[in-house]
Amino acid sequence: MKRTFFTEAAYAFGIIALALGTALMEKADFGLSMVVAPAYLVHLKVSEYISWFSFGIAEYCFQAFVLIILSLVLKQFKKKFLFSFITAFIYGNVLDLMISLVNKIDSASFFGRLLFYISGLVVCALGVSLLFKTYISPEAYELFVKEISCKYGSDINKTKTVYDCISCMTAIVMSFIFFGLWHFEGVKAGTVICALLNGWTIGKCTKILDNFFEFKDAFSFRNIFS
User: Fold this and answer.
1) Measured between alpha carbons, how far is 196 from 164 in angstroms, rounded to an integer?
2) How would DSSP label each residue in 3-18?
3) Which of 43, 87, 159, 182 makes a 20 to 30 Å CA pair with 222?
4) What does the pLDDT average to over 180-192?
């Protein structure tokens, strides 16, 4: 018998998992997830001039830009887009907290860093899978994928893979512009691996969740976020 997993709890655990996974990958230094790499590059560049401009702040600033792009593509602004920015703001603050905690753990060895990278990749995928299960507006990245998938009737996992690859290429171009041609900052071999495997990993995590849990709403708030 499947256990009940409330969608509101999926939202909270999804944000925490995404923040923890990103912090682990940042600590590993094999390359971040292609989804957050552009925001990380903005953080690196702006923090050269504004020291308090953290990775978390860069995240919700960049996600605001993604929401603007989504509005232009759909030719409309939905109420859920505003809630998505609130999610991004919460995530950004949780991310900064997770980074401060993870940085206290020693991972100087290659195998330690590799463990951090693999764990981060899987935890991030789990976080995305959980956010796909909730009616509460997810981060701009996940919302972009959901909205485009609904608009064009495409498979959400395949749409996610395409989005990830585009994000990866964007991060590479940004790295060259910010830090010089052929200078890869935040975008490394691990980023490419993540771009290729992330959609597949999210699909596997989703199947595992569906096998063990039945997702239900604990509160009647779904219409607010529609």
Assistant:
1) 8
2) EEEEHHHHHHHHHHHH
3) 159
4) 83
